[in-house]
Amino acid sequence: MYPIVKKEVLADKIFLMEVKAERCAKACLPGQFVIVKLDEKGERIPLTICDYDREAGTVTIVIQAVGASTERMLRNIDTIEAFQDFAGPLGCPSELCREEALEETKKKRIVFIAGGLGTAPVYPQVKWMHEHGVDVDVIIGSRTKDLLFYIDEMKKVAKNCYVCTDDGSFGFHGVGTAQLQALYDEGVTYDQCVAIGPMIMMKFVCLLTKELKLSTIVSMNPIMVDGTGMCGACRLVVGGEVKFACVDGPEFDGHLVDFEQAMRRMQQYKTEEGRAMLALEEGDTHHGGCGHCGGDK
Amino acid sequence: MEGMTKVPVREQDAKVRATNFEEVCLGYNEEEAVEEAKRCLNCKNPLCVNGCPVAIDIPAFIGKVKERAFEEAYQIISEASALPAVCGRVCPQESQCEGKCIRGIKGEPVSIGKLERFVADWARENGIKPKKAEKMNGHRVAVIGSGPAGLTCAGDLAKMGYEVTIFEALHDAGGVLSYGIPEFRLPKNAVVAAEVENVKSLGVKIETNVVIGKSTTIDQLIEEEGFEAVFIGSGAGLPKFMGIPGEQANGVFSANEFLTRNNLMKAFMEEYDTPISRGKKVVVVGGGNVAMDAARTALRLGAEVHVVYRRSEAELPARVEEVHHAKEEGIIFDLLQNPTEILVDENGWVKGIRVIKMELGEPDESGRRRPVEIPGSEYEIEADTVIMSLGTSPNPLISSTTKGLETNRWKCIVATEEDGATSKAGVFAGGDAVTGAATVILAMGAGKAAAKGIDAYLSKS
């Protein structure tokens, strides 16, 4: 068991957990992810690492309730004390957060664009940069004010932190790409962009940065089961080649990723996941009608 | 003529079992086992033992079954095998022990596998455990992977008095026994978990959720955690794909993904969160045991299932028993056919598969006749799900993070057959990580050999 030492609801359906996982806390680096499983019946869920404390032996993750297992975590957040399983770190560390490449990195003007839950995996990279004397800018985009989190933490480690909301309820009125375009219009330019968030957001960032001739790294979050290269569920086409996000990624050159296909593959279990959600929400009261479960037969 | 045929083993009816995940073969009861044991000729020079990769003293344990001394029979088996309840179920006995049985020349060989299974099941039901080492020798060994190779190596070392810790990347122990082989062939709680408990009862510790190469490395285990030797039994986990058009479409899965969801994550049970694609018409590509497992699982989830294989029935790499069971259950075999393209609908989902007919030509390097395409014979099979079961290759996570560990061009770890020694001192390896995908019992044989190798290595130093 992996005890949860801190938990906090950050925004609507978004919550943070700091978990005691000594091996992982000792080995992990920015850009890597973990796989958590709540209990016997839970799914294995891949989550990018948000923060880690090597001395305390803890790893912080941020979770959005989107499926049966994560909904169950949120619903029972007050009573859950531990994860049954916590495996990691998995995947390759961020290319930028390497001590060996620090001199090169210092020469670059870097902008991070975080969309939605993407703020969580962006944070440890920006923090690493800050601790290593690299100034970077961060754009945090969200649908609305209530979904924003980690703004104060990010401001402490970023040189400039631009916050924007689609509905204008907080900060810049518009999406992250509009904020980046606005900066370019003011004459600001960058050498490297890192975009992490929902696939659709990363796709639009890449469309813009291609025009801006701005090299862009994205962190892919496809469907996964084992996270060690075994199942191939997370396969993506990058530059015409099949890659496994879990072992070859999760970070890739965003200008080479086939986003259309990656987004389509995300739909693969939608109906099955929907069934699991319905069963959870409606419990014994669900007797069919959804067209999938066969409960009416 | 009397004694020419095996005592038949009871099975679940094919029509019934095609709709459930309960075990297909029901095994012998005491009477049947004793009856079958009587068929053993107790040869002076028992060829069956030579045919067994872990050299179980087969005539001796069968002799004890004949006398109804089942506990003694169990102790004889467990001297050689850490996982008899598993081997009795999944070993290819027809090409090993039973393949060599003298009885088999004129009639049917003794049903050694079913007898082994009976003894192991009897021992479990009667709470008999393998014998623990009398005292520990103070040496620590790390074992990577809790599949058949790792469990065997760990069990053998523990019996010799070593303090062994197994590191497992997944959340449950068992490796392929847990994620790969389905419930209806190898029950997870009743058999796999119980065999794992037996290994633990010898004093072996199992630490799950540790991905060697990521969570820590072999060099760290030796330098920082004080392990004096390491056995790598990490298996062959990476799925192969064909590289044909349409393979990234929704509805195309590796057999590993499909089986892991079903077996390890128990997606077939409503109360588990993990989803699985229940196709209506499923095509499984490949002809090995894993293909049979995937096909029979898809059938139980409610699909019509076709197995597409490029050679003929005689070349199917799957065990005869598995093919026979699959046919009984209603799996359709489309033999001498090879996929050329997966057909995709406008939303990116599989709608079918295009195959080309094949004929057999001259034998290739494997000795099997090479399949050759028949020009112009392509046609389409309608399908909503395609499961690729083309074999697996070793995971490079360990070899790429361990200094001085030699691999060959198939990314398999190079290790000797006699004692599992690798190019790195103190590091041994065996099972699919060395050979590429093979069988449970061969992995166990390699785990046994490496345990001896490690014992010799640590006794010397």
What does this structure look like?
The complex is a heterodimer of chains A (297) and B (461). Chain A is α/β, with parallel strands linked by helices and 297 residues long. Chain A is globular. Chain A has helices spanning 22-27, 68-75, 102-107, 119-131, 151-157, 176-185, 199-211, 245-248, 259-266, 270-282, and strands at residues 2-11, 14-20, 33-37, 45-53, 58-64, 82-83, 85-90, 110-115, 136-142, 160-165, 172-173, 192-196, 215-219, 235-238, 241-244, 251-253. Helix content of chain A is 30%, strand content 30%. The mean pLDDT of chain B is 93. Helix content of chain B is 35%, strand content 18%. Chain B folds into three domains: 10-125, Orthogonal Bundle (Fumarate Reductase Iron-sulfur Protein, Chain B, domain 2); 140-237 and 393-460, FAD/NAD(P)-binding domain; 241-390, FAD/NAD(P)-binding domain (3-Layer(bba) Sandwich), CATH 3.50.50. Chain B has 19 helices and 18 strands. Chain B is globular, with a radius of gyration of 23 Å. The longest helix of chain B has 21 residues, at 440-460. Chain B is of the alpha/beta class and 461 residues long. Chain B has helices spanning 14-17, 30-37, 47-50, 58-66, 70-80, 84-90, 97-100, 103-106, 112-125, 148-159, 176-179, 188-201, 218-223, 255-264, 289-300, 320-329, 396-399, 432-435, 440-460, and strands at 10-11, 25-27, 140-144, 163-167, 205-207, 229-232, 238-239, 252-254, 281-285, 304-309, 332-335, 337-344, 350-363, 369-373, 379-382, 385-388, 392-393, 427-429. At the A-B interface, α1, α2, β7, α9 and α10 of A face β7 and α14 of B.
